[in-house]
Structures are given as structure tokens and as C-alpha cells.
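The aim of this short unit is practical: by the end, you should be able to scan a pair of folded records and say something sensible about each. We start with the first protein, listed as its amino acid sequence and then its C-alpha cells.
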Amino acid sequence: MIQISNLRKSFDRHEVIKGLNLSVNKGSIYGLVGVNGSGKTTVIKHLAGVYRADSGTIHLDGAEVYDNAKAKARIGYVPDDLYFFPSYNLKMLGQFYKRIYATWNDKRFAELMKLTELNPKNRVSRFSKGMQKQAALILALSICPDILLLDEPIDGLDPIVRKRIFTWMIEDVADRQMTVLISSHNLKEMDGICDTVGIIKNGSMLIEQDLDELKADMQTKAISEHLPPTLDEIFVYVYESGVKND
């Protein structure tokens, strides 16, 4: 389980995250939704142990994340701003990950590679953005993480690859009770895979709720001609109205 309590973070005296609370149940897929600059990436980087909180707590199954190698070893993290060693190909990166993660699975890596058109002998730094994102997702899934953090994971991916990656992810959630937190601008895609959503604005959590329950609640407000409303329509309504969880 992921638990963030009263998280605050400032950069250059500007408060980016303002007392944010977030909770993700084990074996669920959580969608973190917000416009650019709302704080989504900053939240994810705290969960990945990249940033230290100014105040508040971040726990994975009760363990603090920052400066905790044991906790970080359980996390698969795919950032939006990818970086790869310039001279490494995908096969070399697989060997590198294998040395770092005790849970690395050679068989899974080989199987995922077979389902792609990526050449494991080509330098990943020379891949297109979409191919690099696909490579990063393959590496993250091959470590068989307990928790998968994805920041704009489908940006630059074509529809076929996108569908394939979501299928891999959902299978891991079903088979291993992997917990996923995913941030994306593509609300239509999020609507189809997330069971819980958190809508963040200006560093604060507006609404965090089971998606089906949220749709039922919003349906009573008649915000849409659709029954139930789409996540896209809910997002626009929440942002414009400023409605929050009780």
C-alpha cells in the first residue's frame, strides 16, 4: 500500500505541493490526474525516493521511501524525462538491471522483447521517443516490481504498442497483486484501466475516490449527457467548480 500524508514541497521558496494526502491500495491501478504544473511529477518523484519531502510522510507498506534502498528495490519507475547510458543497447541495460535488482526475471525480459520490434543490439539513446518509452517499460516490468510508478507512460506510443503495454501491466496486477500509480494526460486511456483516481490542482488533492463511485456521484450532478459521465468530463467539472472530497 502507498500512503502519503500531509506532503509539502517547495522549490526556490515556491510551494509546489501543499499538504497533499494520497492513498493507493495494494493490487490497484491509481490514476493521478491534473494539468501541466499541477504537481503530478513532483508527487511521483517523492514516491520513487528521488525527492526528500520538506514535511509529511511517504510510506510503502509502512516503510519510509527516501534513502531506503530496500524499499526502492521494490519499485519500478518510468519517468517522463528518460535517460539511458549513451553507449548501452537494450541487452546491456538488461544485464545492468539484473545486477541491481534481485527480482530481475530473464525469462520475462526475453518474452517482452519478442513482443516488440526493438533491436536489443541498437543503442537505446538512438531510439525514437516512443521506442525509448517502450524500452523503459520493458525494463521496469522485467524487475517484477511490487509497485510500478509511471509518469506519462504512453506519451509517444502508437495505439498497438499502448494496448500491449497496458495488457502486460494489467496481467501483473491480476497475477501478482502489483500496485500501479500512473499519471497521464490521456484521460480516455486512464478511464479504461484505473479503478481509483486522484485529481490534483496547484499541489493540492481535490478528489480521491474509487472511479465507479465517483462516476455515480457525478451522475447525480447531471454534469454530462452521458450515463455515467466520462473521466474527461468529471475532470473538467472538478477543475472548474473547485469541488473537493468531504
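Turning to the second protein, read its sequence before its C-alpha cells, just as you did above.
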Amino acid sequence: MKKVWPLDTAVSFDPYYGEPSRDGDQGYELLPDGTVFIRLQAPGAREVALDQFGRMHPLRKAADGMWEGTVDLGRGFQYFFLKIDGNDVLSPYLPIGYGCCRPMNFLDVPVPGEEEWGALEGIPHGAVTRHYYPSTVTGKTEVCLVYTPPSYDPDRQYPVLYLQHGYGENETGWVYQGHVGRIADRLLHEGKMKDMLIVMGNGMTQGDDIHQGRMLFPRVLLADLIPFIEARYPVLTDKWHRAMAGLSMGSFQTSLVTLTHPELFGYAGLFSGFLRAIRDGNNDHLALLDDKARFQEAFRVFFRAMGTGDQFFETFLEEDRLVQEKGVDMIRRTYPGGHDWGVWRRCIHDFLPMIFQEN
């Protein structure tokens, strides 16, 4: 089988597939038509399948306890549950990422026209650094990742994008699944975006009251993370050099924070995005939409986007109507795809060149 190493896409993956003499030739091969050949060992199993959130891809039994098959998961980053006799199994012979509040196997199938976005060769690369910072909100030490551009110079000052993941993920999502570092490197090399820091916090952070859950993060961001970054890095601290964006849950966190504090943020991005809480929740932050002049003055870019196959697309259309009723101007885009990283990579690829521009 052709050995494919997903490099920094995977949280865990051995490019040499362990010991074939002991474990057999297990793994996967990406085929030219976008399908994937998979071969895994499961001696004694009665059924082996890939469960793509209810869409089943059965493998067939082969010799020597092997199961194999060619499956069409779709293009882009695709999570799935490996089912052996109905039980979830995490295979060490397939890439492992983090999503759905757990480690999960995935495959990253190239998308035609987007191959260069994450290509590593021939361009300079930035760095991603992990930091621990104390939180006055949770009473614990929290974690964040910070992308710095290839030309980073501590004697310069930079704008900052605070970029959030979705429910069931963590601060690593935008690096591993989203390829934000690779995408930013490429856009910078092509002169399409401004040098900036990209800060990714853990939006699932919790205090002692676990029922507060992800609703704590907006407070953590304002009280702890922004001050930590501004004390640690040479950043510009006015609103026109501070942006926030997020996907799914992170999009609502972005809406809540930026519309409540327009004095702090000049740019906002909602990917698979929610202006409002999708379940019961306080939507007082939407009051800013009632003042069209103040809203337009507050944001140079307010970006909303979603995949046309997203399970929440009707909610997106409802919020289209809300925006139209309020008469405010927002950038609105749709992409082919669902509630997945294929769409979110397109969102960040389009959003990064829009922010921190003079015009």
C-alpha cells in the first residue's frame, strides 16, 4: 500500500505503520478519484465498517484476519467511527484527530483546486507555540496556541485574530484539522493577507460548575486571554487591530463577544455561523443590530458563511432574514459542503485577506 503521512494534520500517526511483519500491511491509500482503499486487521470480527455519522461504509473480509475495501467518504477532512462488531474502535493504523469530545480516526482527502493551500514546499513557515495562562474566571490554568508569521519580529507590533473551534474540539482544532498555519503561510507568501498573530484558546474550558461549560469562554477571553497575549507579545491593542472569528459553537461565542463589545473588536467572522443561540439562551447582544449606524461604524468586516449542505442551513437562512430586517451590512457567503472542516478551511482562507486592511 502507498504510505501517506498526513504530517501535522494528525494528533497521532506513525508514517511507517508500526511493524508490518507483526501487524500485517495495514493502513490506507488515497486513490486518484477521491476514494480511499483501507486495509485493517480484525481477526475474529463478524463486521467491520466505517460509520460516517450514520452513513455506513462496510469493509469486506479478506485473508489472514484482514478487512479491506474502497470507500467514498467525500473530499476534505472526514471524521468517522471505526465499528468492529458494532463497537467503536480507535485504529492506530489510521490518522487520529480530536473531535466529538474524543480521539477519532479521520482521513484527509485532497480537494481539487485547494491542493496548494496546505502545501509545505517552497515557502517560509510560521510557528505555533503553546502557552499556559492563569484564569481569574475558572480559577485554573488554561491553554492556548499562538501562530506567529514567518517574518515575526519581536520589535514590530502586530494585529491579533482570536480564532475559536467548535463544540467537542479544543485549541488544537484549527491547527490540525483547519490547517490555519499552512493556509496563513501560503496567503502571506502570495501577499494576500497582513502579518498577524492568530490566537486559539480552548473554548470548552470549565470552572467548578460544569453546567456553565462553554459559556465561560467569552469571560475567559476578555478577562484573561487578551491581557495575557497583550502582555506577552508585541501587539497593537486598539479595536482596528483586533479581530475574532470561530466555527459553529465558536461562531456564537464570536457573535456574543463582538456584538457586546464593539469597542474592542473591529472584525468578526462567523463560520457555519450563529448570530443567535441555537437553543435557549440570552440574545441581548443582538441589541446592537437595532442601531444600524452604530453597527456599521463598529465593524469594518462582519463575515457570515455556511456550507449549503449544513444541518443548520435553515437557521442560517432565518438569520439572513433577521439581518435583512435590521438593514445592517454583513458579508455573506456559502460554500459546497456540510458542517465540516472542508467548509471551515474555505471560510478562513477567504476571511484572513479581509481583515486588518487599510481599505
